[in-house]
Specification:
It is a single chain. The protein is α+β, with helices and mostly antiparallel strands. Among the domains are: 54 residues, 5' to 3' exonuclease, C-terminal subdomain (DNA polymerase, domain 1, Orthogonal Bundle), CATH 1.10.150.20; 175 residues, DNA polymerase, Y-family, little finger domain (Dna Ligase, domain 1, 2-Layer Sandwich). The chain contains 14 helices and 15 strands. The strands form four sheets. A five-stranded mixed β-sheet has the order 5-6-1-7-8. Helix 4 packs across helix 5. The longest helix has 21 residues. The radius of gyration is 24 Å and the shape is globular.
Length: 434
């Protein structure tokens, strides 16, 4: 009896952040929307397809985007809104695809093997799913279907927006052969440059390359990887999500940040953001990470492992402040970037409750969870630590003092850029770029 060919789906929301903003404000529909922060140090997070026609793209410096598209409409971004919409969308997707693996806020893989009997049935299901997302959420999604993960991912990007591309194994060479090798996830600039020196620039050329040459020039591990991809092979399963390694929040400043009081206030804001992400993911962190960069682009990263894992902002802030106070060579210098991270993540459910838990610590955690619930219901920033509002008092918590919360009466500096670490694509079978 013949075994059914594997069928994998990759779904990618079209210009997700910008599309959500256009949905929320119909006056933005058809206009070049850019999500990011303007100014000489800003970066484009994403943009609408109307802006992409001018050459604007993600990760582009804002000053370049402004020159290419001076009529662009800039929006700082509302990440809490995007996460909420993402959860709603993928709840709907899970109703269609029981074996679903989310890899970021706007993309996911679905294992369709056994769910459908052929690629034609898979295409019909995917079309129904696209229509359901559009009808329910008024947003577009592009879908790729292939015999493995990496083929499905490439396919989802071929006909954006609202594309639906199906590439069964027998069509792999015809459809993907002419594409550059950089389209294969795991082949980055350096590896592509090494292949180019061997006269290999397309997937088709990679498939025809002498395996002995590849192994001699690239090493056995990397050669085996590129040979498999050139044949359209990728045995990574769907539904086994990779463990998240770190959660972080960084902010880049248009004007360098000066003064311990201002720096500590920003450390507290970043620590609270990281703590919220930990609680949302039902995670605890064993290690706190501090990252700072000055105006001369000198960067230091320091970390400290905690005696007890945490998901509380005041505890993360206290360690981040301690790490900042240990700085060397940064005294008197302004900071261009400041970030706080949490690593050594473990699911809360795996942590054995302490027999003699600190009741005050549990009260702080309950208050934080209540604040999270209010912010989810009424919007991010409805409740924030009071020290982030009181500009005359440093934010360092006093010994034995519980954190206070207060309704926010101000907004963040519009020129600041927030970056959050998101769970990404499952790793390839070799280092991403050799």
């Amino acid at each position: 009896m013949n075994r059914q060919a594997r069928i994998v789906l990759h779904l990618d929301m079209d210009a997700f952040f910008a599309a959500v903003e256009q949905r929320e404000d119909p006056s933005l529909v058809g206009r070049p929307v850019i999500i990011g922060h303007r100014g000489r140090r800003g970066v484009v997070a994403t943009c609408s397809y109307e802006a992409r026609r001018f050459g604007v793209h993600s990760a582009m410096p804002s000053v370049t985007a402004e020159k290419l598209c001076p009529q662009g409409i800039w929006i700082n971004g509302r990440h809490d809104l995007y996460r909420r919409v993402s959860r709603e969308i993928f709840t709907l997707v899970a109703d269609h695809l029981p074996c679903l693996e989310r890899v970021s806020v706007d993309e996911a893989y679905g294992e369709m093997t056994g769910l459908v009997g052929s690629f034609a049935e898979a295409e019909a299901l995917a079309r129904d799913l696209q229509q359901a997302i559009h009808t329910t959420h008024r947003l577009g999604a592009s879908i790729g279907i292939g015999g493995c993960r990496f083929v499905a991912k490439i396919a989802s990007d071929l006909e954006k927006p609202r594309g639906l591309v199906v590439i069964p194994p027998e069509d792999f060479a015809r459809r993907l052969g002419p594409l550059p090798v950089r389209r294969i996830g795991g082949i980055g600039p350096r590896l592509a440059e090494r292949l180019a020196r061997l006269g290999i620039e397309t997937i088709e050329q990679l498939g025809r390359a002498d395996p002995r040459l590849l192994r001699r020039e690239l090493g056995l591990r990397t050669a085996l990887f590129v040979e498999q991809r050139a044949r359209g092979e990728d045995d990574r399963p769907v539904g086994i999500s990779q463990q998240r390694k770190q959660i972080s929040e960084e902010r880049t400043y248009v004007d360098d940040l000066h003064g311990d009081r201002a720096i500590c206030r920003e450390l507290l804001a970043r620590a609270e953001g990281v703590a919220r992400q930990l609680r949302t993911g039902e995670l605890l962190a064993r290690t706190v990470v501090l990252k700072v960069r000055d105006g001369a682009y000198r960067t230091i990263t320091r970390s400290k492992t905690l005696d007890e894992p945490t998901d509380l902002g005041p505890e993360i802030f206290a360690v981040a402040r301690e790490l900042w106070q240990q700085r060397t060579g940064f005294r008197g210098r302004g900071l261009r970037l400041l970030g706080v991270g949490a690593s050594g993540l473990i699911p809360r459910i795996r942590v054995q409750p302490r027999l003699f838990a600190d009741p005050r610590r549990e009260q702080v955690r309950q208050a934080a969870r209540a604040s999270d619930a209010i912010n989810r219901k009424f919007g991010a920033g409805t409740i924030v630590p009071g020290r982030l509002l009181d500009t005359d008092r440093p934010p360092a918590p006093e010994q034995g003092e519980e954190p206070t919360v207060e309704r926010r009466m101000c907004t963040p500096r519009p020129e600041a850029k927030v970056q959050r670490t998101h769970r990404g694509e499952a790793p390839a079978t070799h280092p991403p770029d050799l």
